[in-house]
């Protein structure tokens, strides 16, 4: 396993639409392991492959005190409700902004063994799933802000997605 540098905006890979993974093989499982190690090394809640320079549809999520999640080719099936939340990003360090996210989401994708799974989530997990899937589509949370003036500087220990 390896810790990989996280790409910082305005790196162009963060704005590309990621490619679907055609086959889940050893290289994809290694990518997932590296992503999990990288995410944990910076105390992140989630990480998308583009954030480490890999334009593939792979995400990992690590909610404190819950089992890590890795999804290949994830997609939002349903969004329900709406709430205002403060959101940050490992690729935009030192800032958060208040945006609207769904109260709950349903996501489908494949696990590292290729098995199709569905996840129904609310709270932080729903937020992380939406945030990381946005990364796969070249969307950053700052795209939801009315203006960049709405970004707020934060202390390093505040949670980043």
Rg of Cα set: 15 Å
SSE order, as H and E? HEEEEEEEHE
Q: Kindly report how far apart the N and C termini lie.
A: 21 Å
Number of domains: 1
Can you tell me the CATH superfamily?
Peptide deformylase
- Count of beta strands: 8
Structure description:
The chain is of the alpha+beta class and 161 residues long. The protein has one domain (12-153): Alpha-Beta Complex (Peptide Deformylase). It contains 2 helices and 8 strands; from the N terminus they run H-E-E-E-E-E-E-E-H-E. The chain has helices at residues 26-41, 123-136, and strands at residues 46-48, 58-61, 69-80, 83-89, 92-101, 104-110, 116-122, 152-153. A 5-stranded antiparallel β-sheet has the order 1-2-3-6-7.
Concise synopsis of the structure shown:
The chain is of the alpha+beta class and 161 residues long. Helices cover 19% and strands 32% of the residues. It has one domain (12-153): Peptide Deformylase (Alpha-Beta Complex).
Topology:
Layout: H1 26-41, E1 46-48, E2 58-61, E3 69-80, E4 83-89, E5 92-101, E6 104-110, E7 116-122, H2 123-136, E8 152-153
Antiparallel strand pairs: 1-2, 2-3, 3-6, 4-5, 5-8, 6-7
């Amino acid at each position: 396993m390896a810790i990989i540098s996280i790409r910082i905006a305005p790196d162009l890979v963060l704005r590309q639409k990621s490619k679907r993974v055609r086959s889940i093989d050893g290289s994809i499982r290694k990518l997932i392991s590296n992503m999990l190690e990288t995410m944990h090394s910076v105390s992140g809640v989630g990480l998308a492959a583009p954030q480490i320079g890999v334009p593939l549809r792979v995400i990992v999520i690590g909610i404190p005190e819950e089992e890590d999640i890795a999804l290949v080719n994830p997609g939002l099936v349903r969004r329900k409700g709406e709430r205002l939340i403060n959101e940050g990003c490992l690729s935009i360090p030192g800032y958060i902004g208040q945006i609207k996210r769904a109260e709950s989401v349903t996501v489908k994708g494949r696990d590292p063994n290729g098995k199709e799974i569905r996840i129904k989530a609310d709270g932080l997990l729903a937020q992380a799933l939406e945030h990381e899937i946005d990364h796969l589509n070249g969307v950053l949370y700052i795209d939801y802000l009315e203006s960049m003036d709405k970004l707020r500087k934060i202390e390093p220990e505040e949670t980043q997605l």
